[in-house]
Amino acid sequence: xxxxxxxxxxxxxxxxxTLIEVLVSSFILFLVLAAITMVYRGxxxxxxxxxxxxxxxxxxxxxSEQIRLQLQSSTNxxxxxxxxxxxxxxxxxAEQEFSKKAPALLDAEAGSLTQGSKIFRLWHVSLTLQLNNxxxxxxxxxxxx
Length: 145
Hints:
There is one protein chain. The mean pLDDT is 88. By secondary structure, the chain is an alpha+beta fold. It contains 2 helices and 6 strands; from the N terminus they run H-H-E-E-E-E-E-E. A hairpin with a 4-residue loop joins strand 3 and strand 4 (112-114). It has one domain.
């Protein structure tokens, strides 16, 4: 007795995935990995930008205090300087917008006005901060006497 080999039965008994199923699942896996990579990259870029902004913002107050002290001793109409603080280097330029003498004071005991000796100055300050390749500019006004 000869046994007949039935080709259709051998396909039904085979276990595994077809080529189309493997390709479709590979494509879906690739899409998921690409999406995760883009989200991670965006989070990393945002984190670096926030860190740089924080470094810039934390340096503005001490640098402006240095500028304020230098402007109080200046008698010029334009003043500039530069320096570094930590990782941040800075340059600044201050232009005097106007100056005015202090108003007269009333001496209550003598009953007379005495002229003030101080001169008040209003400065427009341009401050440029640089950290590695990033640059940020700040503008503010300062009063000195």
